[in-house]
């Protein structure tokens, strides 16, 4: 890996020379809105059976259109929304300009993507559904979640040695 | 009315609602939709261990942890107040295949015949829960996102690296479900 390749998309802490974040400082209760969105999202996840291990198996065996319909229509709605936000320069509720973070290609998207795909088909869950599954009372999924956290940690440990 | 909500929701209702999370998070606080990064924030807040990848101000990302806690609560709300009273319906071909592995319980969204606390002490259980979970956590971070960050947020913003990531997710999933998982479930 070239030392200057930034593969870090979530936070700008790494490899960033200038971090000019103009974000407003908010009180803790501003986070309640994310809790509400999360709850609604979790309900949709369970009611649409996105968190069902069986639905994921059907998807990867091409035995049902359900998951393709969900992901496909979610992407279309997301695309139209992003396009509208850009076109009409829609601001946040605090009046800030909405920022988009371009993703740079690196080989991790292939290697990591394949590894995640393998895990997705085994566990029948991507990270979001893990939280929802635990919520539905499948307490043993806590083990899967802890293991996923461990996987993330090991990636962080090996990050410099992995091909990107 | 409530009976209507208790049925499984069709894809054309659920998909657009999931897609609306993208503008909702952007407009409410300039947040890019992504879930797997929460795993990283948990590492950064609890076990940073002096690893550069976990040395950042995770407190700025607390919204993401609140969001996934909401997903957990949402799962509890859905199962306690809007539970589908009927067994899960799946493709008969899949049911037939799964019966061969001893999976016959369709009362839960997780196959409790193979994913349960007791099976955690079997090789098959370790593969399904521990190894599977590890691959999810390792792979998503290596890829820089999961189904939400790449497949939904990334594709919505027309990012071609996200398309490559999404294709890789699907290739990995097809390989596992069709070529490897049958052997694991047969153990």
TrEMBL record, chain A:
The keyword Membrane applies. InterPro entries: DUF6691 (IPR046513). The keyword Transmembrane applies. It comes from the Bacteria. Keywords: Membrane, Transmembrane, Transmembrane helix. This is Uncharacterized protein. The chain crosses the membrane at residues 34-54, 66-85, 110-132, 138-158.
UniProtKB/TrEMBL annotation, chain B:
The chain crosses the membrane at residues 12-30, 62-83, 114-139, 160-181. Keywords: Cell inner membrane, Cell membrane, Membrane, Transmembrane, Transmembrane helix, Transport. The keyword Calcium does not apply. It is found in: Cell inner membrane. It is a multi-pass membrane protein. GO terms for cellular component: plasma membrane. The keyword Transmembrane helix applies. Belongs to the TsuA/YedE (TC 9.B.102) family. This is Uncharacterized protein. It comes from Pedobacter insulae.
